[in-house]
Amino acid sequence: xxxxxxNGWKSSMQxxxxxxLQMDLLKLPLKESKENVDSLLIGSTIEIQCEDIEIADDxxxxxxxxxxxxxxxx
Length: 74
What we know:
By secondary structure, the protein is an alpha+beta fold. It has one domain (22-73). The chain is 50% helix and 26% strand. It has a 3-stranded antiparallel sheet with strand order 2-1-3, with helices on one face. Helix 1 packs across helix 2 (30-41) and helix 1 runs antiparallel to helix 3. The longest helix has 13 residues, at 53-65.
């Protein structure tokens, strides 16, 4: 089991795309995905559990491409 920690975002972050990415890649429900994005926007740190380290790494790379920042996977 791996963990994704996000605690930053760029002003150009694509909120809807980040929500969709969580749903598609991490299989999170819409409500949780949206809450995660909203939490990032107010400055909170979010932690997401992921079964597969390769999926977690892929998520981190894609999230950075759409404006996520300060993403740690372990």
